[in-house]
Design brief:
By secondary structure, chain A is α/β, with parallel strands linked by helices. Chain A has 2 domains: 3-82, Methyltransferase, Methionine Synthase (B12-binding Domains), Chain A, domain 1 (Orthogonal Bundle); 92-210, Rossmann fold, CATH 3.40.50.280. In chain A, 56% of the residues lie in helices and 10% in strands. In chain A, strands 2-1-3-4-5 form a 5-stranded parallel β-sheet, with helices on both faces. The radius of gyration of chain A is 18 Å and the shape is globular. Classes of the chains: A alpha/beta (212), B alpha/beta (235).
Chain lengths: 212, 235
């Protein structure tokens, strides 16, 4: 497929044209294009553009949601082709929104991007108690924990999660990652998080580099 | 003591009420919508701070507000901000009342007189925001956005009542059970205006920065800036 195809796919994702994303992904697969190429040069390239616009303040949450929704449609079509035999996921990631917080948009986008980059996600949902994060890591063997919060009143629970992992003797076995609109690098450092990522869309790449 | 007051427009009817007691003052009001993008809100506030001269203090009627206030700097004039997470605590009159209502309760949506109209402006399928998204990206995407952003939070909304005209009518416009009404009080805002209770505000002096504590009591504090902080801020 030529450059015009990828430009159309990128535009369809950023404009939330889910039917076009569906059609274009199927068309490319039928033409023998690798699912990885469609993902990288089409879907993820589109999300990069959205991430840039978000950083510049030229788009807001609605536009990010619309693009993520379109990405999800494309990903669902590509997913069967992205699993190659016995290829293992890059890593298992437990993710959740901390206790007393119901916001999950950022968390869901992180989950989507992680899946797109070959990670296995165990999504605990919202209002997640510290003990549940620990339990999920014990059960799954996950090496990465991602916590999100959108309320300053919820941020205190990040500290409790880190403490819960210390008390369980698992702190050194996991990478703890934090994000969410009010979360700052200073706060992440104070609570001894391993990774702070202000951008839900680019977090997966950040994690890949960290694990490499 | 001369001062400049900067406030979120959510406080307008309440400050107007307090000015009946204390005398009218000029206030620079900023739109509630700026909270949608905390960095832009911080820049808006900082722009007014930078523009302020020849007063003894700046009173900032904002709380942590999603950490929007953390990047602010004083250019020489002390900046005093409310010691609260958000406006709900300020309108409930204390952090004790706020904690009692919301700690352990993840359903933290609240309204008040100046915020209540935003239900129709923000959350309804008839709102300008819905229409804008629908025109730009199609109705299907608009429905999706609204479902993601607002539908899950449709539990009873805490309505903070301060005894102002219009509140009862606003509450009655919604169906029974939409609001859970509580009495707020203006004590915290009154004390901030009077300046006779040091604990209701946190003052930012030059060469200091705000730091979040995120509990329900201290909430935020200030520390001396390091040289690296200033350099990072300029970058």
């Amino acid at each position: 497929m030529d450059q015009a195809f990828y430009e159309e796919l990128i535009l369809s994702v950023t404009r939330g044209k889910v039917k076009d994303v569906d059609r274009l992904c199927r068309e490319a697969l039928e033409n023998g294009v690798s699912a990885f190429k469609i993902l990288d040069d089409g879907l993820l390239a589109a999300m990069q553009i959205v991430a840039e616009r978000w950083k510049n303040g030229t788009v807001f949450i609605p536009e990010v949601l619309i693009a993520a929704r379109a990405l999800n449609v494309g990903l669902a079509i590509l997913e069967p082709y992205l699993v190659l035999g016995n290829q293992k996921p890059k890593a298992k990631v437990v993710l959740g929104t901390v206790k007393d917080d119901l916001h999950d948009i950022g968390k869901n986008i992180v989950g989507l991007m992680l899946k797109s980059h070959g990670f296995e996600c165990i999504d605990l949902g919202v209002d997640v108690a510290p003990a549940k994060f620990v339990e999920a890591v014990k059960e799954s063997g996950a090496k990465v924990v991602c916590m999100s919060a959108l309320l300053t009143t919820s941020m205190i629970h990040f500290t409790e999660v880190v403490q819960a992992f210390k008390e369980a003797g698992l702190r050194d076995s996991v990478l703890i990652c934090v994000g969410g609109a009010p979360v700052t690098a200073t706060f992440a450092s104070q609570i001894e998080a391993d990774i702070f990522e202000p951008d839900a869309v680019t977090f997966a790449e950040h994690l890949e580099r960290r694990l490499a | 003591m001369s001062r400049r007051i900067i406030a979120c427009e959510v406080f307008k009817p309440y400050l107007d009420k307090l000015f009946e007691e204390s005398g009218i003052e000029t206030v620079d009001y900023l739109e509630i919508r700026q909270h949608d993008h905390p960095e832009l809100l911080a820049r808006s506030i900082q722009s007014i701070i930078d523009d302020t001269k020849d007063v003894d203090e700046i009173l900032l009627f904002y709380g942590l507000c999603g950490n929007a206030i953390l990047p602010l700097v004083s250019r020489g004039i002390p900046v005093k901000v409310l010691r609260v997470h958000d406006c709900a605590a300020a309108l409930m009159g204390s952090n004790v009342a706020y904690r009692k209502r919301f700690e352990g309760n993840p359903h933290k949506r609240y309204h008040c007189l100046s915020y209540g109209e935003r239900d129709d402006e923000y959350f309804a399928r008839t709102s300008p925001e819905y229409r804008k998204i629908s025109e730009e990206y199609g109705e299907d995407n608009a429905d999706y956005v609204f479902a993601m952003l607002y539908d899950k939070f449709s539990t009873p909304v805490t309505y903070i009542k301060l005894g102002l005209d219009g509140e009862d009518a606003q509450i009655r416009r919604k169906e029974e059970g939409y609001y859970s009404v509580i009495d707020g009080n203006l004590d915290l805002l009154r004390k901030m205006l009077k300046g006779d209770d040091d604990h209701v505000g946190v003052t930012l002096y030059p060469e200091h920065k705000f730091v979040g504590v995120y509990d329900y009591e201290e909430i935020l504090t200030t520390i001396k800036q390091h040289h690296d902080d200033e350099k990072t801020r300029e970058e």
